[in-house]
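does this look right to u?? iron/sulfur cluster version
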Amino acid sequence: MVLEGKKRVWEDYQKEIANDHYFYVRSCIRQTFFPGSETTFLRIMKNDLGKDVFEDARHTTCTGIGYHTDIVPLETTMTVIARHFALMTEAGYVNIIPSCVTSFGLYTEVLETWKHFPEIEEKIREYLWKATKREFKIPENLVHTSDIIYKFRSQIKEKSKVSLINKRTGEPLKVVEHIGCHYSKMFPTSGVGGAEFPSVLTGMIESWGGSVIDYPERRHCCGFGFRQYLVMANRGYSVSNSKKKFESMRPFQPDFIVANCPGCSMFLDRWQYTIAELEGVTYDNRGMGIPVLTYEEMAGLVMGYSPWELGLQMHQVSVEQLLDKLGIKYDKEQKYRGAKGQKIGEPQKPQFLIV
Amino acid sequence: MKEWGYSILKGRQIDFENNDFSISRFVELHEPSFSWCIGCGSCTATCSAAKFTDFNPRKVNLLIQRGEIKGIEDEIAKCMLCGKCQLVCPRGINTRNVVQNIKRAISKSYAL
Ligand code: SF4
Ligand code: SF4
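got this back:
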């Protein structure tokens, strides 16, 4: 009886995730922060899972960063997003999958607004028509790309070559999962597991052999927060948030951090360098920091892709310590080589953080 | 060191696990009314010392209860023990005895 009740309640925390035929929209910032992530997503979807994923080169920013910093007015944002829906409609798709958590949050916000205020939707349809002579249908299914990887986690497991297990000890790797605030904190029902029990990353980690760390500041913001970061003088607010999380997770000695938001992955990775240089502190025992992966990079490693093809050389905190634990072989010589074997240059060495 | 243009802020969360509650416990033991404080600030509003310095008896009470006792000795030294706060305290706290016990706790001269 009790279990039935629990099962029923848990159903409210699930969401519908379409099975195939996706209209994919990229993030503006991920391709510079973690350049292999989106190509890895497409590679897994198309080559390994045989799914139909379509993208349109005419897709633009969703204006999320401008909107959240009060630079772009909401009507403009809505019209830009309406244009994305129009591109999707023109291509004959009904399932839209943004790669960015901010875009996902914003698309959700726009659709919710239109649901409650149909007159605003009408106005935006008019703006879009005047500006571009385009029309659109409301997407039938809007999910974040991490939801898709979550949905197919078992299929990925079946095809996987690597488990999230420490090869030397045989123990599951201890993983910190970080969900972007805009994934399910604004609209709890839009995330798998809601805002209280987000299971999108947990599901992936546990299916692939890892164990999840439940630390006190687990649901604290990474600190990106747009306004906190964009003005240099305010960046102290941003880095302090990340520091609070690192201090809270340190006693659990995580093997790596995984995030599903472009900003979170970026800041949890890069701020470790900043904190190390400013205060001489790292959050591991060896002075190297805690490696940070995007969920696509984690999936790519599990699928046995080459770490350098995944773009892991672009991370601030070195990932080699994690690759060694996973037993993944890599060629040090190839780290800073491009696809054609050409040298792509090496970053400067930090003073304190060991790379 | 490189100029960053910003610095890492210290957290403002109350660290109940690591803060020092020795003064708070001592005062509560010797003047139990200390725990009745609702932080209304009437004491500060009427306090003569607070009028002429940055002394704030309400804040001192609060910081001691949070276990944030750094610099508390210099703060409490500003009290003149006039007892005006006691006349206005809506909770009937023996504020003067509270101040006395804070001083005892700080000086560790626990015997009167
Ligand atoms: S006893 Fe101390 S705290 Fe109270 S009013 Fe007088 S000077 Fe202020
Ligand atoms: S007047 Fe009394 S209750 Fe109000 S802050 Fe002062 S001690 Fe506390």
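Residues 153-334 of chain A form a domain with the Rossmann fold fold (CATH 3.40.50.11810). idk if thats expected tbh
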